[in-house]
Each structure stands twice: as C-alpha cells, then as structure tokens.
Amino acid sequence: MYKATLRDTVILAAIALLVPTCAPQAQEWVGPLESITEAELRDHIHYLASDFLEGRDSNAEGYMLAAHYGAILFGAAGLEPMFTDSSGAPTFFQQIAFTSARVGGASAMRATVEGASKNYSLGEEFLALQLFGGGELSLEEEPIFLGYGIEAPDHGWNDYEGMDVSGKIAVIVPGAPTRNGEPVLPPDQHAVYSNLGRSANARVMSAIEHGVSTLVVVVDSASTGLWDEVTRMMNQPSVRPMPSGAPQEGGERSSAWIVMIKAPQAVDLLSGTGYDPVSGGGPCTPGPLNGVSIALDLKQDVERAFSAPNVVALLPGTDSILKDEYIVVTAHLDHVGIRNGQIYNGADDNASGSAAVLEAAEAAALAPAKRSIIFVLLTAEEKGLLGSMYFADNPPVPIEDIVLNINLDMVGRNSPDWPESLLAMGSENRRPELLQLIRDVNARVGANLDWRLNEGSDPHAHVQRSDQLALMQKGIPAILITRGFMGPDYHRPSDDPETINYPKVLQAARLAYALALEAANREILFDSE
Ligand SMILES: [Zn+2]
User: Fold this and answer.
1) Sequence-separated (6 or more) residues with CB below 8 Å from residue 127
2) Can you list the domains of the chain with their CATH numbers?
3) pLDDT band at 255 (very low <50, low <70, confident <90, very high)
4) Using CA atoms, how far apart are residues 382 and 333, in angstroms rounded to an integer?
5) What angle do CA 166, 169, 173 make, to 5 degrees?
C-alpha cells in the first residue's frame, strides 16, 4: 500500500544511484583509498538527510528507508549478510524488538514505624524511577540510614564508611555536613552538595556503585525543581530492547530503583535518628533504622513498541587464521525524526558518519584484508545507544573475537574550538597503542586532526558519549572519529546537507577506511598482547 509503494520507489532510486559507481572499468584504475570520493559522500548525505526520510527516527518509516539503502549498498559492494530473516533467508538486518516501559500505576510504598503503617501514593507522596534495566521490585525490610549519602573521602567526608548497603534499601537526606557550624567540605563542594538538584547525580551514582537495591531520597522544599524533573522522567516511557531469552554474561545491567519522598513524609521514618528532615537539624549519623520497615511493590508497564534493525555486513578476511578476528566499523544511522512539526534531518548527526561507513565498506571490499571487517549502521543511538548495546549483547561473532571498534559520529561540521579539524580519540583500554595507530595511519591519509584532547584529559568525555561505549564496556578497544559533540545546529532542524563540510567528511571516511585496513592487516595488532 502507500508505505510499501514508497519504499519500493526508493529502492529503485537507490539502485539507479549505484549505476555510475558500478562501471569504473572504462576509467583509469584507482586504489581503494582514492575510490572514496567527496561526490559519493555528498550523494549519500543528500539522500539520508533529505526531508523524504523525515529525520530517520528509529521507530518510523524514514529509518527503514535509510536501512534498506544501507543494505542495498553493502550488497552491491559485495559484502555478506550475517543474519537470517524469519523465512530463513540471509539478511543484512539484525532486527531488534523494542519495548516501551513506564512505572506502573499500581506501584505501592508503605512504611511502618513502631507498628504504625503509612501508605504513600505514587506521584503525590512518592516517585519511583529505574535508571537501567526493566525489572520489578517487591520487598519489605528494615532500611539503612546513610545520612547525606555523600562519598567524598578526599574532602574529609564519607557516609559509606563501614556501611554495607549492598542489596539493601538505603535512605539519604539533602544537605551537606557541618562541624561547629562550619562546612566540612571545601566551599565549592559544599555549595554543590547543599543543592540536592546539583548533587543528585553524584549521590545516586555512589549508591549504585555500592549496590543498593533501592535508594530513598528525601527531597527538601528547596528542591521542587528536582521533584518536577523526576515526575516528568517517571511519566515518560523509556524505550529499550526486549530482553532476549538467555541472561546476558555479567548479569543484567544495573537495575537499582530510585525512590523520592518529600521531607514532611519522612519525619516519622527518621524519628529514631534524632534528625529532623523538615528543618535539617539534629544529628545525621548513618546506621540501621531500628523499628522501621519499608515495603515496596514497584511495577513496570511494558509494551511492545516497535522493531528496527542494525544494518550489519561482513567483509571476510583473507588469512586462514586472522580471519577469525574482527574489526567492527560503526556509525549510527538514526536521528530524532520530527518534533513540533519540524524535520530534524541530521545531516551531520549522523548521515555524515553513515555515509563514511558506506564508502569505507565499498573501498575495503576492493582489496580485503587479513582480518575480517564488520560494517554496522546502528539504530536507536538517539534513544540511548540502544542499537549498539544490543549489538554488543548479541554479537554475530563471539565477542572476544572482536579486537577493535572504529566509530564515526558527527564528522561533517566545524566545531568552534577546532573549526577545520577532526578528532580521532582512543578508549582508555590500550590508549597509547590506539593513538600510535592513528598517528601511523594518518601519516598516509593526511586528515587534519586536532590532537589537543588526546594529550590531556577530555573535558567533554567524547569517548563515553557515543556507540563505542557499548563495545568498550565489553573490553573492546575503540577509536572515535568525530568533529566534536558541540557547536552549530547540534540537534536542531537546521542540521541540513547544505551546511556540511564535505572535504572533512572525505577525510573522516578515508581515515576510517585506512585505520580498519591497517588494523586488519597487522600481524600483531597491539604490542602488549
Ligand atoms: Zn550522533
């Protein structure tokens, strides 16, 4: 019907696009690196970031048009599919079923103090949020009071000292410690921790690292902004891949719950400690809350949301032994779709990286290397790195055989601090070797790299903020190529093909190709193996 017809039209258009690149025989032969041209990258970006694809939201038809385009080009380049569809036919699509979950209205909380029980009502008197994972929670136990929940031993304060909260319900209160009326923490830290909104992240992360099952945060009257923010987060469904049958190695990703209650609702709960959550006065000493129990029955309403594929293609290696090791080259193909009636075309983010992967794949197929290379256009990055997480949890080859990831994200615009340059950055595992690999390869490619963020620490934490993170979490070294995650038109409807710096995309595509090829051909990839 309408959608099918639309898709068929596009597939025909994409095939037509291929014709000129399929007939190079009459022309002078060019090497694989030179086969990557600005003109081809321009074609890919103008198609992927056209209004026709409506911003490539992974739950919409526009994303499927982009995915088919990628699959057609991978096939035309001679790459091999790694999956089979429901009829058993080979396919470039790694299909992912996504669910949408939100905290269920039937979720309940009850606190009992010295035999007297109080039920809290969801949304009014308590909020509940699960940061990762999609589990439910049902338990009743004596909670542990963790004081301010501040873990800052370098600054002379640690509420976790001597406390074992693993698997337990812990309760924390807002504020920062004082001694004889003077702040204990240095002034800047004291200012941060005195504001629950500014310090909530740090407090929650400490609790998660200590393995709490549930962190109950008492919210003071000065933190209504935080309460409103968490209310919004609680009411917004979160999208995640449907759990696949077998449990993942290393268990589920952390599934702690965060519960919030307002200060007046915590008075009885904390009465045994001498601390008054309304005034913030009295001793704030961690310890068990004797005579108190908290019962939680937290539900998730989960429904099937949509399916979308990663587009995955294999270029088999030529060496009988090394071909069982894999370099994985990735870029996310999705973007954020349509918002308030405006199409977010995502030319830079990330039609640019996707185009570079398509061209790198075509070039690599001209002269395969010793190791195998897997090219992947990832879905649902914009919904929280979901496509790459799924790929890392469900790899088409044993995860330990993946020896390097090269990821491209946003390679087409000029960032304010290094306008004409690209960044090429290595993950912390094997960082010196990765930087050396980049230097060696770029001596031939000649991309204009800004090296400053490789020399010190990166205040923007680029390497933690795109799809390579999913593979790094499996222990795989990764290289990110980007123009930098900031600057003009970032996540705006004005991220359009005509704003792209095409020579820069060309450099990124050639660098990605040359890095993959060099890594795939080295007898020993890393010296210290
Ligand atoms: Zn992106």
Assistant:
1) 227, 230, 231, 234, 259, 260
2) 6-98+308-521 (3.40.630.10), 105-298 (3.50.30)
3) confident
4) 10
5) 110
Tokens at residue 340, please? 């308030």
Is 242 buried (19+), middle (13-18) or exposed (0-12) by CB count in 10 A?
A: middle
Q: Distance from the CA of 490 to the center of ligand 1, in angstroms?
A: 9
Write the DSSP symbol of residue 347. Answer: I
| pLDDT category of residue 130 using cuts at 50, 70 and 90 | confident
Output the CA 389–ligand 1 centroid distance in Å: 15
Mean pLDDT of the chain: 90
Instruction: Give the Å distance between the CA of 163 and the centre of ligand 1.
Output: 41
Q: Which protein residues have their CB within 5 A of the ion that is ligand 1? A: 349-350, 409
Phi, psi of 428 (to 5 degrees): -65, -35
- Indicate the residue type of 142: E
Paired sense of beta strands 157-158 and 151-152, if any? antiparallel
Distance CA 457, CA 465 (A): 15
239: part of which helix (H) or strand (E)? strand 238-241
| Whole-number percent of the chain with pLDDT over 90 | 78
**Distance from Cα 245 to the centre of ligand 1, integer Å:** 30
Q: How far is the CA of 378 from the centre of ligand 1 (A)?
A: 10
Query: Angle at which helices 38-48 and 502-521 pack, to 10 degrees?
Result: 110
Q: Which amino acid is at 352?
A: S
- 354-385 pLDDT tens trace: 999 999 999 999 999 999 999 999 999 999 89
Q: Which residues of 265-293 are buried (b: 16+ CB within 10 A; e: fewer)?
A: bbeebbbbbebbbeeeeeebebeebeebb
CA of 321 to the centre of ligand 1 (A): 35
Give the list of residues 6+ apart from residue 239 with CB closer than 8 angstroms, or none: 59, 98, 99, 100, 305, 380, 383, 384, 386
Gap from CA of 418 to ligand 1 centroid (Å): 18
pTM of the model: 0.78
Rounded to the nearest angstrom, the distance between the alpha carbon of 408 and the centre of ligand 1 is 9
* SS3 category, 89: coil
